[in-house]
Specification:
Keywords: Signal. Helices cover 42% and strands 18% of the residues. The protein is α/β, with parallel strands linked by helices and 137 residues long.
């Protein structure tokens, strides 16, 4: 019985971690605002500018990162497998290139903090003053 309680407790902790909030981040000097439609357009290669007309450089976390899974399903409304197939088709036909990938939150923050055109996402718990949050999911 104690084993069962321990397993249930562990599952609750893991499910809580899986549901952690993510923050969409930009360079601190970037005053842009974004909504889910903007993010879909940018991260699916259907546009290359923010709503204010300035160039946007979307950045992804590496596959397998929890924040990436959350972003893909909650923001882009697609599974990782669907996105992989989507980008494979675009790359094969020469119609697009997926966003560059960064291995972890620290690398993503460093990339966004050093590029005023960058937009990425990390777990909200990883946000600090080197980046500006423009949306949370």
């Amino acid at each position: 019985m104690n084993y069962l309680k321990a397993m249930l407790g562990a599952l609750l902790l893991l499910s809580g971690a899986a549901l952690a909030e993510i923050s969409v981040i930009v360079h601190p000097s970037n005053a842009v605002s974004v909504d889910q439609s903007d993010l879909n357009r940018l991260f699916l290669g259907r546009g290359s500018n923010f709503s204010d007309g300035n160039r946007a450089t979307p950045l992804n976390l590496a596959e397998g990162q929890a924040a990436r899974e959350h972003f893909d399903t909650q923001v882009l409304n697609r599974s990782s497998a669907q996105l992989k197939a989507y980008w494979s088709r675009l790359v094969f036909t020469g119609k697009g290139t997926p966003p560059a990938e960064h291995p972890n939150a620290a690398a993503m923050k460093a990339a966004v903090a050093s590029d005023p055109t960058a937009i990425g996402y990390i777990a909200s718990s990883d946000v600090d003053d080197t980046v500006r949050v423009v949306a949370t999911f």
